[in-house]
Design a protein that fits this description.
By secondary structure, this protein is of the alpha+beta class. The protein contains twelve helices and five strands. The protein folds into three domains: about 160 residues, no CATH class; about 70 residues, Single alpha-helices involved in coiled-coils or other helix-helix interfaces, CATH 1.20.5; about 140 residues, Heat Shock Protein 90. The N and C termini lie far apart (about 85 Å).
Length: about 400
């Protein structure tokens, strides 16, 4: 073979390589990078899982494994970015770790160990090594042996890579998302119930219980003076009678805070009117509900309006306010408006954040529109559940009002 022929022969592959389009070269780079990245991911996954599992009987095993899963989340994020850059595959980011209501070590540990996103990213890191060996070997060999058909081979190999990214690094399915949300909401409900029990215990201990103890002591002294000083005993009995009235009123207020009788007996319209009558700001109540919702939804709506009207009284400086309640499809909507100074927010220290958390725990929504200078419009939304299907009335009443246009702030 002549020197000219040899030169022509050796220059042919580079000329053909130059004919590959840009996307093909990106895919080749992705396949060649699979091996070194696969080795790193495999070592990370195997070492951390083995160390965490082996040391699980000690105090550092489970925290080590939880930290490894958080690290796997970061590796998965890098791999999604690599797939976007080299494969042109756009995969949304998975749901973040659920927010913890209790910021303690054990809550973090339990949440991290139960993270499905971290476990799937860890599985991807481990599985990528054997596949990386295949892609690296085939691609590197193809560059020098069967380069004319290499683009077709590369396309087939990257199809598998895309499937792995979609299957293991894509967002969780809807059921998995819902499970995480329900776990977070369960923590909100538990914390809220515990806080309510502590409040009731405190009110009983500091209020009615202390007053009844003082009443019992007063009656005991009056009994001793009954024969010696009847007039003093009568005065003490009269004072005890007044204490009994005050204690009864405190118990009524406490019972109203747990669940008001007017809400049980007469429904949401009458209960909200009762709240409006006790507010220091004139409040107009409009309720358009063809039927009564379930007792739990009714109670949530009542206490939502109660807390919002307390904020109106204490913080808004308003001269007037309004409460509107209506049903739209399968949702109960509440809108509380006031013409006060505005500036309300979830970080305002007025209990708005806790109220939003409690509504979110029952699949509700909470929206604040409160520019500086006012007015303030707060919209709450709760799922509608019927109290009794037999009590819904004729079919024409089972429809819903159309969505009402909210006041603009």
């Amino acid at each position: 073979m002549t020197a000219r022929a040899m030169s022509s022969s050796t220059s042919l592959p580079p000329a053909r390589f130059a004919a590959y389009d840009r996307q093909t070269w990106k895919e080749i780079a992705h396949l060649l990078a699979n091996l070194p990245l696969g080795v790193a991911g495999f070592v990370y996954g195997v070492v951390t899982i083995a160390a965490g599992s082996g040391l699980a009987v000690t105090v550092i095993g489970l925290p080590l494994l939880a930290g490894a899963l958080l690290g796997a989340r970061l590796l998965g994020k890098k791999e999604r970015a690599r797939a976007r850059s080299l494969l042109g595959l756009w995969v949304d980011e998975p749901s973040p770790m659920p927010k913890l209501r209790r910021h303690d070590f054990f809550s973090w540990l339990r949440s991290s160990l139960r993270d499905p996103v971290g476990w799937r990213a860890m599985l991807y890191s481990v599985m990528r090594l054997p596949w990386g060996v295949v892609t690296f070997t085939v691609t590197l060999t193809g560059l020098f042996v069967f380069w004319p058909v290499l683009p077709y081979v590369v396309r087939g190999l990257t199809t598998v890579d895309r499937a792995m990214v979609r299957g293991l690094l894509s967002p969780s399915d809807e059921l998995e998302r819902r499970i995480l949300e329900l776990e977070s909401d369960r923590g909100v409900v538990v914390d809220t119930a515990a806080a309510d029990l502590r409040r009731i215990e405190r009110d009983l201990h500091d209020g009615a219980q202390a007053r009844l103890v003082a009443l019992a002591m007063g009656l005991g002294l009056a009994k001793e003076k009954l024969t010696e000083d009847p007039e003093a005993a009568a005065r003490m009995v009269d004072e005890a009678h007044g204490e009994v009235k005050v204690a009864l009123q405190e118990l009524r207020d406490l019972a109203r805070g747990i669940h008001p009788a007017v809400l049980t007996d007469r429904g949401l319209d009458a209960a909200l009117s009762s709240l409006a009558a006790r507010c220091t700001v004139p409040v107009k109540v409009t309720a358009d509900l063809p039927t009564r919702p379930a007792a739990a939804i009714e109670g949530s709506a009542y206490f939502t309006v109660s807390e919002l009207l307390q904020n109106v009284s204490k913080h808004s400086g308003a001269r007037s306010a309004s409460v509107e309640v209506w049903r739209s499809d399968q949702r109960l909507l509440i809108q509380v408006w006031d013409d006060g100074r505005g500036g309300a927010s979830l970080a305002g220290g007025t209990g708005m954040a806790g109220l939003a958390d409690r509504l979110g725990a029952v699949d509700g929504l909470f929206v604040i529109e409160s520019p500086e200078g006012g007015p303030t419009t707060i919209t709450a939304e709760l799922p509608w559940r019927d109290r009794d299907l037999d009590a819904q009335g004729p079919p024409e009443l089972r429809g819903s009002r159309g969505p009402r246009r909210l006041r603009a702030s």
